[in-house]
Here is the input.
Amino acid sequence: MTIRTTTSRPLDNPPIPVQGKIAAAWTSLMFFVIYIDYFHLYQPGAIDQIRGGRIFEFDISGTLLTIFVVVIGIPALMIMLSMTLPARVNRATNLAAASLCIPLMVFNAAGASWDWASFYALSIGIEVLILAYILRSAWAWPRTDSVQAGRDATELEEDLRQDLRR
Here is the structure.
């Protein structure tokens, strides 16, 4: 019998940029919304209602489907925008988009019966929790110390000058 005697080294836990955290949260929200919409189809009569041309209390129309595209398009775009926009615009865009999405997610309970209250309460609760994380992350976006950044740039320039003299 062999006994392992090697000690494990602690795992490295490098910091994750705010942009990555927020993009991951938007991705998580997208997957969750898609699955919740899919699970909704398991409710008795849901597919028959869709075949009959209605979703909840609304007639299926080009306008309704356009609204659905906008609702799901916001998180889809925010995944990309969270990774590509400059910090100041990124922060503002995430604050605005997450704030806009909260009432949209809560509206998903429209037309739901009390028989499904736990399903909607839990799903909307998780969606709002993810959006609250996005809001908190964007609100608490780390700031750089401009004096420190200026000093670092000056030191870098001095190092480059010394390297060129050699």
About this structure: The chain has a mean pLDDT of 87. The helical segments are 18-40, 46-51, 62-84, 87-106, 117-139, 146-165. The longest strand covers residues 54-55. The first helix runs from residue 18 to 40.
